[in-house]
Design a protein that fits this description.
binds zinc ion, alpha+beta, two-stranded antiparallel sheet
Length: 82
Amino acid sequence: MIVRFLQILVAFVVVRILWGLVRSLFGKPASPPRAAPTGATEQRGEVVRCEGCDLHIPKERAVVRDGRTFCSDACAVSDAEA
Ligand SMILES: [Zn+2]
């Protein structure tokens, strides 16, 4: 357990040192990696459109049936019956 923790600690320190070297090489000040886009607070993850009701939902919550994307099982079923 302690050995594992030390390994992670050493890896973290090494990464920090390398990162500092890279930064000094390029001579750029610290800046956020990406400019924060405006809009919803739920920024991470892809958003997909339901083919049944045109609702936009996070991809991880989407229901995929026969290669088509839906917001819920109910939408997938009702679309299949239509
Ligand atoms: Zn839907």
